[in-house]
Each structure stands twice: as structure tokens, then as C-alpha cells.
User: Fold this.
Amino acid sequence: MTAPRSASAKSRWIEDWDAEDEQYWENGGKKIARRNLYLSVASEHVGFSVWSMWSVLVLFMTPKIGLGFAPDEKFLLVVTPTLVGALLRPSYSYAVTRFGGRNWTVFASAILLVPALLTVYFIQQPGTPLWVFLLISALGGVGGGNFASSMTNITSFFPRRHQGWALGLNAGGGNLGVAAVQLLGLLVISVAGDTHPAYIAAFYLPLIALISLLCAAKMDNIAAVRTDPGAQREALAQSDTWLISLLYIGTFGSFIGYGFAFGLVLQTQFGSTPLEAASYTFLGPLLGSFSRPFGGWLADRFGGALISLATFAGMAVGTGVLLLAADRHSLPVFIGGFTVLFVLSGIGNGSVYKLIPAAFARRAEASIVAGHDATGAFASARRLAGAAIGISGAIGALGGVGINLAFRGAYGGGAGSGTPAFLTFIAYYGLCAAVTSVVYLRRERAKPPVAAAGAGASGEVRTTESIHA
Assistant:
């Protein structure tokens, strides 16, 4: 192939996509892939903003506006969209393979108007009961599903040698939505005071509409992203899917869990005002989002396992700093420790995701050594890797639920200490470090099966090298 054929103006399906063909990639494929990547980032960014909006809105919910809720009730409002977003991720990932990346992105973007509109109306009604806000926050969870569909779609647009960078940029740009909505909250409090939370949701209404229209006009569906309904079932049967999901709980679960909970933790642990909490909460998610592509780049260069192992070790140490800061009631050290955790979780997000295509590619290599067809083996690996991305994204997001439930239990009733939660997090990071070292670092240091066997044609060896590049 020399160049991709233009997508149909009516359906925008590209049937001949082959990103691994270097000539095809340079003669137009790269331009198409990057256009879809940038629009995917925009859609995912707004999805994350709507998903994490309640981490900001709860800071406004005080008796001053007739919405005074207890700390454990506010943590519940933060947990709800996290849980819904996590549970939606497998179906969102599959929807791309059923309806097409462009088609589903348009829908996933436009549906964000529903929770945003409901928030604008009900957040201005004093005395609204908790269950109404729980329902609206649950609807806001649809924004969390965007991540899985976006990552599944973008994986197929880019060749393996660029997937670490592309997935890191896609996820990092989406993750920035957490910092963006928190910065918006700070702006609203600074300019209009802490009695106008509706302004935050209202800001996103025209943005959601614009991005939905741009995705409809400029994105493409590619046949390569289609897979049969059994792909997720097959991926669930692979041990790598579960092990990488466990690691992703530690990285993405930490990022999204801390992002949602940080403001409430500052209010509960240190008695911060809404303005003070909003002033500090945006920095960590901002730096964590920017560090995710860097984590993907480091994983491309040094291996996903080595970077992930270093990340988990650093996160355990960083959580220890939080324990010390909380014990000594040192707000600057506490904020500094949390900021380091956000950066490390972002790096870990990029490096852990790099493990997915590498793990399934290695299975393909072993299959080739056993005598199976190389083309079929790598096609199967790519198909299962796409399914595993959706599964691990969903399970990883459940880590955010766990973090918020741990904080809710530790700070229940407005009293108590975060120490039990922090000790739990340290133990989990230790578990993740052990799995990374024993399973994935050992694999990275071993020779690929194809190379070790000295088998395969030169073309097959190049394919293997491109996967691990």
C-alpha cells in the first residue's frame, strides 16, 4: 500500500488502514492518525472534566447556599461518578468496535450535555436532597467511559513503535480535564465567590456542543478497530489482563482517586476554606496529566516494567511523606507530597499502559516459535491488546473508588485521621512493585521468544523489534 484511501464522506469508514506499513504511514496515514488523535484528546478532555466536576462542586456545597452536607456525604458524591465511569468503560471500549471510533466519539461527547444541564439547574436549588445530586453525579460518570473508548480507538490508528507516545498523549490530554475543571472552580470562587457553582457546569455546555460537531465533521472510523464480540472474553482469560489491571489500579486509580478527593481531604484534615482548597487541588492533576506522555516516552525508551517499578517505589515513599505531614499538621509538606504522588501516578499511567501491547506481542512471538502463522499471531495480539486496554481502564478506575471509600471511612463524621487510608495505599504500592518486578521486569530482561529461538524470517524479526521499540 502506498497511501490510505479517503474515507467515505457519508460513513467516514477507512477500510484499508495499515499503520504498520511505513510507506502507507508516511504517505498520509500519519496525518489522518494525528487528526483523529487531537480530536480524541479534546473529547476525552471534556469527558474527564464532566466526570470529575463533582470534586469541585462539593467544595461549594455549604449551608451558605442551602446545600450543607456532611463530609461523608460529600465523599459519597465524589465516589458515585467514579464508580459509574469505571463500570461503563468495558461497554464504551466495545462500542468503538461495534459502531466505529468516530461515531461513538460523537455520541460520547454529546451525551455529556445531559449531566451538565441537570447540574446547572439543580445546583441552584437550595434544599435539594442528597439523592438528587447522587443521581446527577452518577449521570456525570458517563464522562469516565470516554477514556476507554478513546484509548481503544487511538491504539488502532498508530503503529506499535509510536503507541507509547500516542496513548500517553491521548490519556494525558484527557487527564488534564481534571485539572481544568479544578482551575475553573478556583476562577469562579476568586471572581464570583463560593456561592455560584452553576457557573462551572454552564461553562462546559457550549464546549461540549462544539467538540461534538468537530468530531462529527473531522474524525474517521477505521475497519481495523473492529473486532468480534469474543475479544473481551478472550482477554479476560489472559493472566496479563488481570495483572496489568492490578498495576493500573495503583497508577490511574491513584490519579483519579486523589484528584477527586484532594480538596475534601484538605478541608477535612486541615480545615481549608473552599478558596484555599481550590487553590491547591489543581496543581497535582495538572502535573500528573503532563507527566503521563512522559511516562509513555520513558517506557518506549527504557521499558514499561522498569519505569513502572521505579514509579511504585516512589509512590510508596511519597505516601509515607503524607503520613508524616498529617502527623505534624504540616500543610506545605502535605501538599508537596500529594503533588509528587500525582506526578508519579501520571508517569506510571503511561508506563503501565505500554505493558499491554508488549505483553500480548510476546504471546504472539511465542506462538510463532510454536509454528503458527506470524501475521495471524500478531493480528490476534493486537485484537486482544485493544480489548485488554478497555478492561484494565475500567478496573483501574475502580481504584479511584477504593481510594475515596478509604478516605470516607477514615474521615467519617468529620473526625478521625487519614492514617489508615495512607497505610493501605503504601501496602498496595508494595504489592504492585512486587508483581512488576517478578513478572514484567523479568520478561523485559529476557530475550524475546522469536529471537531466542533464532527462528522466523527477517520480516518477522523486524515486526518483533517494532513492537518492543
Remarks:
- The mean pLDDT is 85.
- The chain has one domain: 15-468.
